[in-house]
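Example: MFS transporter.
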Amino acid sequence: MDPLLRDWRSWGLMFAAMLTIMSNATITPSLPGLEASFADNPLAPLLTRLLITAPSLLVAIVAPFAGILTDRLGRRRPLLAGLIVYAVAGTAGLYLTSLEAILASRLLLGLGVAAIMTAQAALVGDYFAGPARGRLMGYQMAATNIGGLVFVTAAGALAATDPRLPFAIYGLAALLFPLLAAILPEPVRFAPDPAQGTPADDAEPGWRLTVTIMTVAAGLTFVIFYAVPTQVPYHLRNEGLADPRAAGVVMGAMMFSAALTSVISGWTRPWLGRIGTPVTGYLLLAAGFGGLAIGHSLGLAMASTALIGAGLGFCMPTFVTTALNVTPARRRGLVTGLITAAIFLGQFLSPLASQPLATHLGYAGAFRIGALAFVALAVVLTVALRRRPPHVTRPLRQH
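Written out as structure tokens, the predicted fold is:
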């Protein structure tokens, strides 16, 4: 067994990461039902889609500042405060009486997500180093998607009874609060790394450029990727698959696949490198979006989202791991905050970009554009990283 899996801190970080990633997609199966429940609101089609991505707006605004605070004040206090906000705001959709009020609660949820995500990602860098850090990011992604598989599938079943019931799933944060408080200690800040004999905040030359590339890539990836949770339920209904459970199993296939490949990516990254790993992911994402564009059955939709999940399993851990590996320890909170902001800004902008495409080109046309965009991102990322100075690119395969 990997020693990481015998470390309680690893499990605590996986649980925390699970909360942040599931914050948006959990209520995906509820969207058609919520739209029908508020049919008298002329903005219901847009507002229901924004319920998925509204937390992302607050995360995008707040995460860099949350990162700065975690660098100055420590990791535990933002993490634990974020759990409280997450539980209160996440479950508010159970009882609020208007779409506008639910949307406001989703924005508040983003505040909790920003605090949790920046603190837990910085803790990954504080607790672990080298290949272990990359493997833990893969395990985190796996735990996130296994949890997402369970929660989104459960949300589909709950939404078939009442579209508000999936909001109860956010109460999990309250249950995790005492556990995470017990097993995630405040790290010793910037202590020397005995294994290397050098200060733990050593940075790779040119680290700011690498962080910028990873931040931009993460944001653009999620602008395109988030067309899946925001548009697939409507695409399935358009194809005659109106049962919310269909959306649940399709999203579940994506999360199960992402769980498997994110573990694999942690072990294959030393061979694929920081270029090959995300490029592999982009090509899988392109294949999955292409499958959604041509598919007309539940089976093909599941196969396509499985490819999308596999692609995300290669890309997502790479963005954060690469940035943490090159960044000085004293800047880890800020850097994780910037990447977090980019990811969630991409999620927020996604329906604003995909909805006009779906309206004018149809769902198949929108997914086809997404496939082409991922191929373009693979090319651009390869060129951007290969153009770096030789003294920076030499250790690529070690990260």
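Residues 190-200, 389-399 have pLDDT under 50 and may be disordered.
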